[in-house]
Amino acid sequence: MTRNIKIFDTTLRDGEQSPGCSMNLKEKLEVAEQLEKMKVDVIEAGFAIASPGDFNSVREIARLVKNSTVASLARALPQDIDRAYEAVKYAKHPRIHTFIATSDIHMKYKLKATEEEVLAQAAKMVAYAKKFCGDVEFSAEDASRSRPEFLYRVFEAVIKAGANVINVPDTVGYTTPEEYFRLIQGIRENVPNIDKAEISVHCHNDLGMAVANTLSAVAAGASQVEVTINGIGERAGNAALEEVAMALKTRRDVYGIGLNLDTTQIYHASRLVSKVTGMKVQHNKAIVGDNAFAHESGIHQHGMLANKETYEIMTPESIGLTQNKLVLGKHSGRHAFEDRLRHLGYHLEKEKLDQVFKEFKELADKKKVIYDKDLEALVADKKLEIKEIYQLKEFVINCGNVITSTANIKLKREEIELEEVAKGFGPVDAAFKAIEAIVGDSFVLEDYALQAVTEGEDALGEATVKIKKNDEVYNGRGLSTDVVEASIKAYVNAINKMFSEAAMLEE
Ligand code: KIV
Ligand code: ZN
């Protein structure tokens, strides 16, 4: 028999909380929009009390999202719950998600509280949250290392106080599929009022078992899974949405589970999150990695030609992956271009479309054929564009293995051209130093990566950088068939993001 389970996506909270994954407001709104399009049941939009920026993004997501429930995290403290409700109250379906730790080690060293004190606080705060909001989720942090008998009592008390969802986090990624199955089963058998609440599971991936543990909990009766796109999250990450969803869909014969999720939006969501966080998806990553549907070996290709099911357990189309076809060239017209973009799921306003079409023509002059991936790379940032405070005008690089690299960079800011020359350890370093001299500031380069968007000598190069200033990290991305130009554009893009965010905070 099929039962439905709910997908609770925490990319914007647990995912964003992890180092190097921060997103600005525009990026979070774009991700939230995509999550809603994918029909996730619950979007955890952030931790409202954590900072004014977090509060703002939870509130704006609450205003934007219409169908999915929007949740904010809150410690089991009145001021956290007040702040969470202030932010989610604009949502059509708001949820307050409150938590307190229940394991001996957390209670002793972090909370410095006894079991009885924690139990009383949990119940009191759930009752407090319930006064504001009909939908209250309670999480017992570090549940998988908590004493099961204590956990049962806590869950019974919070359900009595009004929690309609109880979450059982494996906070430190310590449990195993068998152990977690027994824990969920134990909760179902020993919490007398469990029929009044949903059981949710939340797994971290420290031992590489987050997805297996999540699926095991579903088999034991959990009805909500907490996941993130691409598995981003604290330390080794959280259970990956795409892996849990596709495992449930592909092995429906085993799990007997139905989902509301539109899995054809998975690929798009994965690329979007990778782009806005700057966290690359490994090539052999299940479901969304570049190689996930590639069949290189002759034997496999032979089998695939005879019958796709010989080596394919799910179709690329089921996650929204279209074939990376040779599509357009220099002579392709606007109509064909627009048509292809629509086919890929991009619906741009006229102004943006004009701009991408111009960039497409420029690219087609340099590159013989344009693939879907090239188009996606061109269009990817268009909805997220920030004000280009600095624009690249020209650059000249002098480098070689017998000279010190020098870069001469010309940027434009408000119609004024600014030019600097700098030396560096290689062309990219020299270029970044010249840009810093123009901007009059210096940044820590936290990460720099280059990759080809497609195969071939004339492939489009994509550079990504992460720069750090005052403990804040900004991602930048640049595209060009010339890798130095792509790198310069990425650095300028990150600097522009930094200035735009500062301006947004001042507004
Ligand atoms: O991992 C965890 O325990 C959490 C809770 C706050 C739900 O993220
Ligand atoms: Zn977590």
SSE layout and pairing:
Blueprint: E1 3-4, E2 6-9, H1 11-15, H2 25-37, E3 42-46, H3 52-64, E4 69-75, H4 78-88, E5 94-101, H5 104-111, H6 115-132, E6 136-141, H7 148-161, E7 165-170, H8 177-190, E8 198-203, H9 210-219, E9 224-227, H10 241-250, H11 252-255, E10 257-258, H12 266-277, H13 298-306, E11 326-329, H14 334-343, H15 350-366, E12 369-371, H16 372-379, E13 391-398, E14 405-413, E15 416-424, H17 427-439, E16 444-452, E17 461-469, E18 472-480, H18 483-506
Parallel strand pairs: 1-10, 2-3, 2-9, 3-4, 4-5, 5-6, 6-7, 7-8, 8-9
Antiparallel strand pairs: 11-12, 13-14, 14-15, 16-17, 17-18
The structure holds 3-methyl-2-oxobutanoic acid (KIV) and zinc ion.
Fold and architecture overview:
With 507 residues, the chain is of the alpha/beta class. It folds into three domains: 3-277, Aldolase class I (TIM Barrel, Alpha-Beta Barrel); 322-383; 390-506, Alpha-isopropylmalate synthase LeuA, regulatory domain (Double Stranded RNA Binding Domain, 2-Layer Sandwich). Helix content is 42%, strand content 22%. The strands form five sheets. An eight-stranded parallel barrel has the order 2-3-4-5-6-7-8-9, surrounded by eight helices. A three-stranded antiparallel beta sheet has the order 13-14-15. It is globular, with a radius of gyration of 25 Å. The N and C termini lie far apart (54 Å). The mean pLDDT is 92. It binds 3-methyl-2-oxobutanoic acid (KIV) and zinc ion (ZN).
